[in-house]
């Protein structure tokens, strides 16, 4: 497997950094550790995973492999190397970018805030590609304001029009979404977000409505409003509706919504993600104008 050689190499790099360890014992008997790290900030990672003195001083390659697996989100090395191709692609992406505890914490918190993990490993991988692709772009919010242009008018609109396709796996954010910025704890409509551009690199980023007072970006948002899903997430929800509630339906079954009185094919129904639900729910093709759900849909032939 192509990723296995990468994991082995990274484990050796982590081990090399670990071996640069020097120990200082203070007059109070407290032990301090110092590292001349080249690849990983091992000190911050040891503190993140709460490795004690015994853990730090027992320098074995197998334990470096164990730590590497934990950085990638696995319990141990065997679980990592026996994971699926998609899971290993995601692990490699993480290990290329999470070289210290700060980057790792940012990623873990982003997963928690977005709930993207609920949609499976492929959705997380798609999101991670966009998230890590930002790289230094996220640092734009930390630049002095005289090096930033806040876009407006057609320039801002162009960025929003491109946002879903380029930066928004699974379509969780829409221009009409209500969002909560976890950095400043304020709620607002997504379309009120600002778009900033680095004057030197000409890179753009969607940031909190309250920038520059708040340094949050769209990656720090929680979606508060119902969201109409699309793509594989929508298809999976429709298939789940058939298997769990409407076993007599197929995707091409013509249904009648008793709320709005309109007929449509089941495959045209909407999958709607509510903030307080674990999975998208099936709603009428005409949602949000009609709030009929899956239980309000009957075979159209019965209505004739």
What would you say this structure looks like, in words?
It is a single chain. The protein is of the alpha+beta class and 304 residues long. Helices cover 38% and strands 16% of the residues. It has 10 helices and 14 strands. The protein has helices spanning 2-18, 42-48, 53-57, 61-71, 77-81, 85-97, 101-114, 121-134, 153-167, 231-244, and strands at 22-25, 31-34, 148-150, 178-181, 186-189, 194-198, 204-207, 221-223, 227-228, 254-257, 263-265, 270-273, 281-283, 297-299. The strands form 5 sheets. Strands 3-6-7 form a 3-stranded antiparallel sheet, with helices on one face. β12 (270-273) and β13 form a beta hairpin. The model has no long low-confidence stretch (mean pLDDT 87).
Structural features:
about 300 residues, three-stranded antiparallel beta sheet, 14 strands
Show unreliable segments: none
In angstroms, what is the radius of gyration? 24 Å
Q: Give me the number of helical elements.
A: 10
Write the H/E string, N to C. Answer: HEEHHHHHHHEHEEEEEEHEEEEE
Let me know the number of strands: 14
Provide the spatial order of strands within the biggest beta sheet: 3-6-7
> Would you tell me the overall average pLDDT?
87
Distance between the termini: 58 Å
Beta strand %: 15-25%
Q: Residue share in helices?
A: 25-40%
Largest sheet: 3 strands, antiparallel
